[in-house]
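If you are new to this repository, start here. Below is one unmodified record pulled from the training split, so you can see the exact layout before writing a loader.
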Amino acid sequence: MDYLIDAHALLWHRNRDTRLSEKARSVLEGNSSGLIVSDVTFWEVSIKLSIGKLALDGGLESLRSEWIQKEAAESLSIKWNHIAVLAKLPLIHRDPFDRMLIAQALEENLTILTCDVNIPQYPRVKSVW
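And here is the target side for that same chain:
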């Protein structure tokens, strides 16, 4: 099973935050499963950094380096087919980053690693926490 990592899971793992579930920690630290970080996640983190809603030791570049450049996870770019799926999603909640992650997960057959209770409400979306 391949996992698409939501921003909070990525950050909570980095900061050893107790809100990260044992299942999520196991997935992030296990080498037996495919881990994927969407460019959408880095986009979300960059916006939160720029508006002062988030502080990140080493900045965005260090977070990306830890996961992508060191090959702990694969990077997933936004593609046209993701946008086409996004356009058809029901409006269960309005977070644009989560909605794109949902579209990517559906189109790429990925399981989203998230504690967001809204995400499992979308039809056919697989998530774990």
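Two things worth knowing about this chain: The domain at 6-128 is CATH 3.40.50.1010 (Rossmann fold). The chain has one domain: 6-128.
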